[in-house]
Design goal:
The longest helix has 7 residues, at 49-55. The relative contact order is 0.18. The protein is globular, with a radius of gyration of 16 Å. The protein has a three-stranded antiparallel beta sheet, covered by helices on one side. It is mostly loops. The protein has a domain at 37-64. It is built from two helices and three strands. The protein has helices at 3-6, 49-55; strands at 44-46, 61-63, 71-74. A hairpin with a 7-residue loop joins strand 2 (61-63) and strand 3.
């Protein structure tokens, strides 16, 4: 494995990616009442094109810089302070 792959930064809100495995995840399920603490430090969330239309009605929208800009919904103004999660 190359050094670049070892240090590759995961997208926002992803801390540990691995494929679903029938044996390993057989007893897993979705929570009845989801906990959003995992997002408490995120102030911008990347959007897909279909999400953009609905998100712009409720959140300020910005775009990343670079060759392929990505739209973001802003959830806070200060780094590490998501205004939508306690």
């Amino acid at each position: 494995m190359t050094e670049a792959k070892k240090t590759a930064k995961l997208p926002a809100l992803y801390s540990d990616l691995h494929p679903v495995n029938v044996e390993e995840h057989a007893g897993s399920s979705l929570a009845d009442e989801p906990d959003f603490k995992f997002a408490r430090d995120e102030i911008r969330i990347p959007l897909t094109l279909p999400e953009l239309t609905k998100a712009c009605r409720h959140f300020p929208i910005g775009f990343s810089s670079g060759e392929t800009p990505v739209p973001f919904a802003f959830l806070g103004l200060t780094e590490g302070e998501n205004l939508f999660v306690d």
